[in-house]
What we know:
alpha/beta; eight-stranded parallel beta sheet; TIM Barrel; 12 strands; 294 residues; 13 helices
Amino acid sequence: MRKSIAEKIAEGQVLISDGAWGTFLQNMGLQPGECPESWNLKHPEKILSIAQSYIDAGSDMVETNSFGGNAFKLVHYGLDKQVHEINKAAAEISRRAAGSEKHVLGSIGPTGKMLVMGDVTYKELCGAFKAQAIALAEGGADALVIETMSDIEEARAAVTAAADNTSCEIICTMTFEKSPEGEFFTMMGVTPSDMVATMVDAGASIIGANCGNGMENMIGIAKEIRAANPDIPLLIHANAGAPVFKDGETRFLETPEQMAALISNLLDAGANIIGGCCGTTPEHIREIFNTIHK
């Protein structure tokens, strides 16, 4: 029987997650305005190849192509009645790549609705996240990663819905920006310290940060989380550096070697799981693997 992620970390293992998915999809032909999650049904073999590429690079876990798979996002494509089908397929595909030994992280992103603006109620958020979580678990996800969150109440709704309706391990990561004073906040004003107790109380067993920062800034975020909670498993998904707009497109220029050079500092700051977000590739993950296992 496969040990849980938390059990492996308790044994002292440093685990490696996967990298970006969006770049892959674009390179494979995803068109502007097309629903990425629809590819789980239309092009499952292409989605499988992305997941497999990260497993082959050394990832201990792989996410699912379901970041925008909630009803509030899918309604824009006329797919809100297919929430279960799309998310279940996403998990099934990543499970094929992960096999019986690796972990599948069911990706759950924000809805795009603002509680503070009255766009949606807390109950409606919980319902949307519940439907997505159940489908991902049914498809074979053994952990759910609520990620790229900025509103602590939306994150709470997602974590609570996932924890109450599945037996999956629950991971929550928020996205922070660095202020001119060197402090970290989400766009809704949440600090890494603010996040910790709230997400643990809601049912998260692993917490962390993703997107918004390259590896260097993630070190500071990890330290702040660790100061608030020295024991909870900590996941970091860093971008491949800061985004640069060039020739009409956004690029992330940090090389695999540049990212890997900061791994020891990130581990010293308390990270237990390291992977990538925007701009990272299987080459970045392979270099992270080689650095950790050298």
